[in-house]
Records
---
Amino acid sequence: MSVARSIDPDQIGFDPARLARIDEHFGRYVDDGRLAGWQVLVTRRGEIAHSSTYGLRDAEAGRPVEADTLWRIYSMTKPVTSVAAMLLWEEGRFELTDEISRWLPEFADLRVYSKGSALKPFTVPAVEPIRVWHLLTHTAGLTYGFMQTSVVDGIYRAAGYDLYPPADVDLATACQAFGELPLLFQPGTAWGYSVATDVLGRLVEVVSGQSLDAFFADRIFRPLGMTDTHWWAEGDTADRLAALYAPDPRTGRAFRYDKLGALAYEKPLLLSGGGGLISSAADYHRFTQMLLRGGELDGARLLGPRTVRFMTRNHLPGGQDLETLSAGGFAETTLDGIGFGLGFAVVDDPVPSRVPSSPGEYYWGGVASTAFWVDPAEEVTALFFTQLMPSSTYPIRPQLRQLVYSALVD
């Protein structure tokens, strides 16, 4: 096990012995084979209180998790895309209430699923257009094919859109297809985890006149010094990328999942703003510190502080929580007491979920069990990296919160 700190945790309100419980607890996940390895990083007031690694990034090759290990962050790409969109919003390039069909005409004449099967769906016209804020909050009525919880999910899969898109499809072509598929619900009436952030990435491309990778590089990665965040792994990055695993249904032990893991070594045709990035703990730490500091880090200001505060409030209609508005299916969060902002889940009340946190905390995670949160009230950020699909396999995220908040003693 490797543990590093930049400051004595006592100086920023953490009990070191209690922080050590993080490593003891998740060490057992590796020791009994549930995870190959992991990396965790906890900060307060911009100082690293706890940074540790354990286990192997590649169990078959015997390569350990190291400080510069790279991870498929999947849906932790979504907050990056949301920040990209809000950079353009701050420039007055669009309003959050604008219809996206102004830039993406394929979303002009939408239909909403009403009844029937995936082979013979009955649809009705959308009574409300998809607006920019619908994309940011997953209230657009779009969905994901891989969730397999609705007829509309099946229609997505029949069109070739499962966990990954068809191999010959780019982002523009995918959005054309999404515009032709029925919506799961009328825009703005429910919450459904979806390809909305991929569509948002396409909106960034059209509004900015840049490809998504170029925009990310110019406006986010270079200003923040995120030198280890990529769309695919090659050369040195390929050597540092952790292998992808899934649980054996009989034993629960992690087994190598190269069928999907190998895709990270290929340059993608579709730049997925919803799940396409590879990153390191150090890089994503810089991203979360920018958010915690109100949009600025080391002299580079991406967003204004009021914009960050606005993004991290609950934007769900009527201030409702996800338990009330969720259309069902997969999500990277609990639902009770949790709202959704412009790119993040937001804690309105931590009590209903029975998971310690602070009101106003915001967070998200990735399908390979990565996770982060930012707690402005306590000035805490926490990041956890591993590579186990799906993220619902083990209660890693609530357990990490238990361990971090019980170590905070000031």
---
Amino acid sequence: MHGLINRAIQAFVCSTYGVSRWRDVTDSAGLGFSEFEAMLIYTDEQSQNLLVAMEQVLERPLPEMLEDMGTFLVSNPQVEALRRLLRFGGVNYVEFLHSLDDLPDRARLAVADLHLPGLELLETAPGQFKLLCQSGLPGYANVMMGVLRAMADDYGDLVILEHSGAQDGAEVISVMLVETEFSEGRTFDLGVKLP
């Protein structure tokens, strides 16, 4: 698994549960280290051991933690670059949803050896969608649930999300757009403001 993904898990656990709990997780996983390098590739076994240890040490269901991590990735100032990448997908939430098909390719433009599983958006009715999350990354659909929820808040829209099982080998997230402009969204500027 790409180091950027493991590094994101590290940032989430350290920020949410503390550095000492992170060290407990890495010790339990038997990694022999506690810091991931963002640009290295780690074995699937190391990453899987990390996820198992998270669930055991932090005593929370892994799907819940991964969804919280998806929210963290969008809403935490530490990882503002990901929010910016996602916001370039559209001026509103529906445009953002339609841009998700291209997310793995956009991620590869930013980091050439980062391979995210495919995403496919199906519009089933006005304001109702299914997002198909292809396999290949453990917990990917759970993380995407958190990302979708946080992005709805970012745009100020009210949505209902549900993990709807599997379809054609992909995990399905149902998205129902209840109300646009439900609340004031977060501001977003195309240009980055330098300090």
---
Amino acid sequence: MPIRAAVSALLLTAVALFPAYAQDSKEAAKAVTNEDGKYFDADGTPTFNIKEDGTVDWYTFSGYRRYHSDCHVCHGPDGVGSTYAPALAQSLKDMDYGTFIAIVAGGRQNLSAGKESVMPAFGDNKNVYCYIDDLYIYLRARAVGDLPRGRPPKREDKPAAATEAERACMEG
């Protein structure tokens, strides 16, 4: 179990070392533009769009699927954390997009007080990195409280741009 504790400590350290400049809020996460089915906030950061009837955009749904394929083993279902790794739905309240990308791609290692903490790098794992925006979008929706736990009941259709980006990333 030392690796579990190491991963948990590492991610907590990463969040402490790389905090966002301001906490994410529902207002900051609000979608203001849509480019080929992908939503962005006022700062141009990828974000989610959830309709009043609970329909989520494709990228939020894809993020849910990818998270539960690759991330939930350590970080628990729906980003709520585990004894192995912290709650990403909580961490993203204080973590900006760039920090998220850097940690997922490059991983983190922390050596302090005789302990070693490790978050593995996923920058070479196309099943994670090709969907990194999707993961961020899903966790951002969870972090601001706009997406409840569980599989989203409805989703928008997959945009052609998502299909093309996925193909290009997987082949590249």
---
Amino acid sequence: MRTYDFSPLYRSAIGFDRLAQFFDDSQRTESSYPPYNIELVNEDKYRITMAVAGFDRSEIEIVTEGDTLKITGRKAREETPRNFLHRGIASRDFEHSFQLAEHVHIVGAKLDNGLLNIELAREIPEALKPRKILIDGVGENVQKLVA
């Protein structure tokens, strides 16, 4: 794996330290268990689908803190040990973190047939959306720019 040195960015750019830290963090190897997809549903809607076969709703926790989405699975320990002849369905604990862009938030989550689907949306506040200003116009003639 190739590594990059972002220290020059820290020395010469102000306010981009989070971006450089994001690149540093993304280079670390992370477990691929459980497998997941990140899907662009449409322009401002996303879906994370995670294969969590064998996990109950009560064993999965979804938390957002700031710009981080954290999904944690803690498998309840069985009271009676089982004697498997073959064990192909993993049941180990997991934790995945995802960095969310500005104005992206969780719309909902559901667990169906062993797949955890988390719906996300980007909703830019009205005050931050582009506006078209009419020349020689007055306040009520300010129009929202439609993309």
